[in-house]
Amino acid sequence: MGNQDVKNIRNLVLISILLALVVVSLGAYTRLTHAGLGCPDWPGCYGFIDVPQTSEQIRQAELAFPERPVEPEKAWNEMIHRYFAGSLGLLILLISILSFKHRRLGIPVYLPLALLALVIFQAALGMWTVTMKLMPVVVMGHLLGGFCTLCLLFLLYLRLKPYRIPSGDWPIKKYWSYGLLGVVILTAQIGLGGWTSSNYAALVCTELPICQDGWVERLTFSESFDLIPPKRESYEFGHLGHNERLTIHVMHRFGAIVTALYLAWLALVIYRKAQSQFFKKTALGLAAILLCQLALGVSNIWFSLPLSVAVSHNVVAACLMLILITLTYSLKRKI
Question: Which residue among the candidates 71, 78, 223, 244 is catalytic per the annotation?
């Protein structure tokens, strides 16, 4: 019965991982369709539990929020994201309860509790995103929180999954610290991507590989990375000047170069030194996802941020992090 309980929890975690990927995708879609304030209140929408639909509901909504006329498409984008995020939160609550209940079976307890605390904080960030009118640091924090939730769920799944490292690969286990450094570098790059998006700087540079002529002279760091901006009624569509946005975008591109070079080197080293197919395939997967992510980044610029490509750029970043966690955890895992 104990093994079945562990299996059931592992299946719940797997479902939660898939749902978290959907939530990350919907969050990107909501942000990119400028629907972050599609509902000007939280957790409802214009005072309703769903989007106002009838003429009377719309009239009441616009009386309550005269500064924000109802835009049903944007409002639905926001509410669907909230529904999925709420469902994920309930699943994580269930996982935490079951993990505590069956802790004597060796199921991790602190990791599910950390996940539960994180998802509660994520809900607060979701509220602040609305109440603080898309303040960039809150929007970026919400994005990073979503990625962190996904990663912790995936780490929990790996801890619940029984597998052994092939004995021939013991010598390369010393490379786990390089994998951990890769996780740190990729996290910083995802943060830069979130800062670029939350400050509406994605299309400031329209040429490759760095930016259009004269970008060096326009770099300014005085306000580009201020986490607490001047108080405004709303930060929708950005509050920074052109040079500040250009600086943010350029730093994101430099970050992409550093991240790509490091992860490509890591994948090559692991592939060349590993003996088992497990590590060779993981290294190849890391390289393939990295190449896909670079292609999506270039496509965002080349085709002026198509919605499907921009959303995919977020999702593939999440997949890149997951395979990097797989590699690092497997290298660190005790024999």
Answer: 78
